[in-house]
Amino acid sequence: MKYCPICNTSSNDSEFVGELCLACFMKLRSKKLPGKMNLMVCKRCGRIKTPQGYSNENKNALQAVVEKELKSKNATVKFKRMENEGKEAEVEFKVEAEGRAIVIDKKVEVKVLYTICDTCYKKASGYYEAVVQLRGDARSVQKVSEHLERFLEKGGAFVAKREEHAYGVDIYTSDKRATEMFLDRNRIASKKSYTLYSSRNGKNIYRHIYSVQLD
After folding, report:
1. Any idea what DSSP says for residue 72?
2. Three-state DSSP class for 50?
3. Separation of alpha carbons 103 and 99, rounded Å
4. pTM for the complete prediction?
5. Which of helix, strand or coil describes residue 201?
6. In this structure, what are the phi and psi dihedrals at residue 28, rounded to the nearest 5 degrees?
7. Are the C-beta atoms of residues 93 and 75 closer than 8 Å to each other?
């Protein structure tokens, strides 16, 4: 028979991990686990920063942050829920001891750090990589422009500016690749050109122009 050196519980009354009863082992091990984490939040759009980039706050995104922030030797971590108006997170640590996994629930202090994500910074600065010049039937121009804007926003890009003309509209987009993807997927033919924007590390950077004639 064993007796826990901390609380004097016997092995008849409790499981043991090594020389300690399970309760005392969990209490001591919990103290060694991380108790604080930082949560980076864009002060403009409210998205949180994860190792994969900025994302809307959801369980998967918070799990990614928890895994990065609460790394612990010989333990895995799982996000459960936010509590106390976002000031605490309840997480589950799974600790390996004597060939088995022991689950320890712990409340972790959350420190929110406000920043500005790349997308919001680009929006504020008027950044754009491409211009789509839509010409032709007014209804077709309106339909395609709305579809393009929704497509860009869904993929994390955006329309930086719209310039209305009597003969159509110029749409300034933040992402050249996303713009080309939209045109290709919707089989919209365009005439491509470009203008020199700047030079970085000896490499020229261009802004691309896509001229589209709609029926």
Report:
1. B
2. strand
3. 13
4. 0.76
5. coil
6. -70, -40
7. yes
Across 107-131, average pLDDT: 94
Q: Can you tell me the distance from the alpha carbon of 84 to that of 174, in angstroms, rounded to the nearest whole number?
A: 38
Whether 104 and 92 have beta carbons less than 8 Å apart is answered as yes
Helix (H) or strand (E) holding 65: helix 59-69
Does the pLDDT of residue 99 top 90, yes or no? no
> How many helices and strands in the chain, by DSSP H and E?
5, 13
Alpha carbon distance 89, 140 (integer Å): 49
Strand order across the 88-97 sheet: 53-55, 48-50, 36-42, 100-115, 88-97, 75-83
The CB density around residue 132, as the number of other CB atoms within 10 Å, is 23
Strands annotated E in the chain: 16-17, 20-21, 36-42, 48-50, 53-55, 75-83, 88-97, 100-115, 130-136, 159-165, 168-173, 191-200, 203-214
Determine the 3-state secondary structure of 60 from DSSP.
helix
Per the CB < 8 A criterion, the answer to whether 108 and 67 are in contact is: no
Q: Name the token pair of 151.
A: 């497509």
Mean per-residue pLDDT of the chain: 93
- Whether residue 119 contacts residue 45, with contact meaning beta carbons closer than 8 Å, is answered with yes
Nearest Cα to Cα of residue 156 among 181, 184, 185: 181
